[in-house]
Design a protein that fits this description.
Elements lengths: L9 H8 L5 E4 L6 H14 L7 E4 L3 H15 L8 E3 L1 H10 L12 E3 L1 H14 L9 H13 L4 H9 L7 H20 L2 E3 H14 L1 H10 L2 E4 L7 H11 L5 E5 L14 H4 L1 H4 L4 E3 L9 H11 L20 E6 L2 H18 L7 E5 L6 H9 L4 E3 L9 H14 L4 H11 L5 H13 L4 H6 L9 H23 L4 H11 L2 H4 L7 H21 L5 H10 L14 E5 L8 E6 L10 H8 L6 H13 L2 E10 L1 E3 L6 E3 L4 H4 L6 E8 L6 E3 L7
Bound molecules: adenosine-5'-triphosphate and magnesium ion (MG).
Adenosine-5'-triphosphate (ATP) binds next to helix 2.
Protein name: DNA 3'-5' helicase
GO cellular component, one term: cytosol
EC number: 5.6.2.4
């Protein structure tokens, strides 16, 4: 008979069989960390542990889905409903929803994304009479986010940051703290969370209610975390709170792949694990199952240029595989055409499918040329994590109506509807309406009933506001009371507020936008079909949580995937192209500046780790290309660029170098050295 763990090598088995106490599995990319964690979960269940007693944290929802599917395949589908497997955000949301009233929120509470949070901050800056040039809302949001991730309260903001020699004066941070405090008040008032709250509030909940903490500690007897190198302080804290007192905590990771330092992740957490848990068993996996020797050796040599590394077990494989194909191009256009030709070549002559291929870039901006060229070469492609379906303007607009439907306190949604729908009443008057409501202890919608009470609103403007109140707000209030399926509700709302005539007609391309709205409504119908008993509220929450997935996402289709190196974390593809490997792009200009200014001596090391992540996604063939000039931002200006320093850190004997140029007078490209690839 075949045993479950026969699918693992001895080291992996050792990890999957160590069920008690703290365990750290630390090993390079492709060594089977995620696989080991998956099998360990199955093993726990086979040993009689209830799925509900295992908490498993993955970095993305996609990774959670994949892992869940694999575990079900190993031990049966019936365990699925009971599993606690997901991202930090989704797990915390589940805990918070079970305890809403304890954290000053109520049913209907929704999550604000970055755009929402920045809009709130803009409003606060306006209300405080501050200048956006001095207090950039996006920057303030970053400061607040970072503070929340580090569990720093408004009162400590100035102390913690201004003194730490960070940019900005003490006065600046005092004001930022004032905005932070007001921001928290607005969120509570609007019955909403932001993403960082999900973790922060869960910790606060546990810290103020020991009994509750104990309940969850007993529930989650076994804790497992994938990609542990990228946990931030608040996530680290949460895990250590929950793990006590048994400390059955199993974490896997690779310090060489820590790439979210810019978002508060701290590779110190994985490096300190043995210090935090002196009883920890440390297991190093020794074999790479993913990549060819050329890819392993080259990426190892690259990462050895970092100083902040933990030593890994060395490994090699017998077959070197194809060399790494390095290409220099005259321009981004030439580079894009080169990539397209290589892709078609692989598909036509080497039996690869389009879906075997991924193109990775530092940020989406660099893949524009390629996105234009791919259709010309008849290459189907999917942009992963670009402007998502749910970020489309008409969808975002329509979602505001639904948000107000499920959460009557969502004043941000209300204000947005006002801005979308009511013409001729600007920001100043809107803020006057707000002020009037506040001073007279009224709801803002009460003021909409008789708007002329506000100074500056004459009869014409008042008529517009009253019409808005009747058609939109009253409709939403009526619908809220009605018992009907969520799809019918959304559809009726769409029709009764006359969204097509009043909103879509005002935008460009209304017909196309209507198509997207229909897709969106269809998605709601599907959700209703597959999740009976759940409502619009669950739908909206879920959509926010799974922002790293997309309606257009489908693994079934045979498409080349384009994504950022960050988004590729944990994934693998037979063929990988890394494009735009240039100084100031990859490593990113910001990291060079941070390092030069002495703000972060490890900024370029993080870029190198990201490059390492990108390279190690490849199983068989890796292409890396760079161009001599590139447009770097929206100013449209070309800038001369040098090849990335990372390229000179790769072993020359494992590279196959080509130069590609545009053919004079022709449309094609020419390989200076005609490479016989693979
Ligand atoms: P990363 O650091 O990139 O997340 P990882 O260490 O999590 O990588 P996995 O994704 O778990 O690595 O494994 C890499 C590949 O190797 C997967 O396709 C996996 O199925 C395969 N693999 C790992 N271990 C074994 C094994 N013992 N036998 C066969 N295949 C394996
Ligand atoms: Mg992994």
């Amino acid at each position: 008979m075949k045993y479950l763990l026969d699918d693992l090598n001895p080291k992996q088995q050792e990890a999957a069989q160590t069920l008690k106490g703290p365990v750290l599995v630390i090993a390079g990319a492709g060594s089977g960390k995620t696989r080991t964690l998956t099998y360990r979960t199955a093993n726990l269940i086979q040993q009689g542990v209830k799925p509900a007693n295992i908490l498993t944290v993955t970095f993305t929802n996609r990774a959670a889905d994949d892992m869940q599917a694999k575990i079900a395949q190993l031990v049966g589908n019936e365990i699925l409903a009971e599993m606690n497997l997901g991202t930090f955000h989704s797990i915390c949301l589940k805990i918070l929803r079970e305890n809403l009233t304890k954290i000053n929120r109520m049913e209907g509470c929704l999550i604000y994304d970055t755009t929402d949070s920045v809009a709130i901050i803009e409003d606060i800056i306006f209300e405080f009479g501050l200048e956006e040039t001095e207090y950039d809302p996006a920057l303030i949001f970053n400061i607040i986010s970072k503070a929340k991730m580090e569990l720093v309260k408004p009162t400590n903001l100035t102390k913690n940051y201004a003194k730490a020699g960070k940019q900005g004066s003490e006065h600046f941070y005092q004001t930022a703290a004032r905005i932070y405090r007001e921001y928290e008040r607005v969120l509570a008032n609007n019955n909403s969370f932001d993403f960082n709250d999900l973790i922060k509030k869960t910790i606060e909940l546990f810290e103020t209610d020991q009994q509750l903490l104990q309940k969850y500690q007993q529930k989650f007897c076994y804790i497992q975390v994938d990609e542990y190198q990228d946990v931030n302080h608040s996530q680290y804290k949460l895990i250590s709170l929950l793990a006590k007192p048994q400390n059955n905590i199993f974490v896997v990771g690779d310090d060489w792949q820590g790439i979210y330092g810019f978002r508060g992740a701290d590779i110190g957490n994985i490096l300190e694990f043995e210090h935090d848990y002196p009883a920890a068993r440390v297991i190093k996996l020794e074999r790479n199952y993913r990549s060819s020797n050329n890819i392993i050796e080259s990426s190892n040599q690259l990462i050895n240029n970092n100083t902040q590394n933990k030593v890994k077990a060395a490994w090699t494989r017998a077959d070197d595989g194809a060399p790494i194909f390095l290409a220099r191009a005259d321009s981004p256009l030439v580079e894009a055409k080169y990539v397209c030709k290589r892709i078609n070549h692989l598909v036509d002559f080497y039996n690869y499918k389009f879906s075997d291929i991924a193109v990775l870039c530092r940020s989406h901006f660099q893949s524009m040329q390629l996105q234009n060229q791919l259709p010309k070469f008849r290459i189907p492609h999917q942009l992963v994590g670009g402007v998502s379906f749910f970020d489309r303007q008409e969808i975002r607009y329509f979602v505001n109506y639904l948000k107000l439907l499920v959460n009557p306190n969502d004043k941000l949604a209300l204000k947005r509807l006002f801005r979308i729908e009511v013409h001729g009443v600007g920001e100043i008057l809107l803020s006057e309406i707000n002020k009037y409501a506040r001073e007279n202890k009224m709801e803002i919608t009460d003021v909409f009933e008789s708007p002329t009470v506000v100074k500056g609103i004459g009869n014409n403007k008042a008529a517009n506001i009253i019409e808005f109140q009747r058609r939109v707000i009253d409709t939403i209030y009526d619908l809220r009371e009605q018992k009907m399926g969520m799809y019918q509700k959304a559809l009726q709302l769409y029709e009764e507020v006359a969204f097509a005539d009043n909103v879509l007609a005002e935008l460009d391309n209304p017909a196309e936008r209507e198509k997207y709205i229909n897709m969106f409504l269809e998605d709601i119908a599907n959700f209703q079909r597959y999740h009976p008993g759940r409502g619009l509220y669950d739908y909206l929450l879920l959509n926010k949580l799974i922002a790293d997935k997309d309606l257009a996402d489908s693994d079934q289709e045979d498409q080349v995937k384009i994504m950022t190196a960050h988004a590729a974390k944990g994934l693998e593809f037979p063929v990988v192209f890394i494009i735009a490997a240039e100084e100031e792009v990859f490593p990113h200009l910001k990291s060079l500046e941070e390092e030069a200014a002495g703000r972060n001596p490890y900024a370029v090391e993080e870029e190198r780790r990201l490059f390492y992540v990108a390279m190690t996604r490849a199983e068989k063939i890796l292409f890396i290309s760079f161009a001599h000039r590139r447009v770097q931002n929206n100013d449209g200006q070309y800038k001369q660029l040098l090849p990335s320093r990372f390229l000179s850190e790769l072993p020359a004997e494992r590279l196959d170098f080509t130069s590609v140029e545009s053919k004079k007078g022709g449309s094609g490209i020419q390989l200076r050295k005609n490479v016989q690839i693979i």
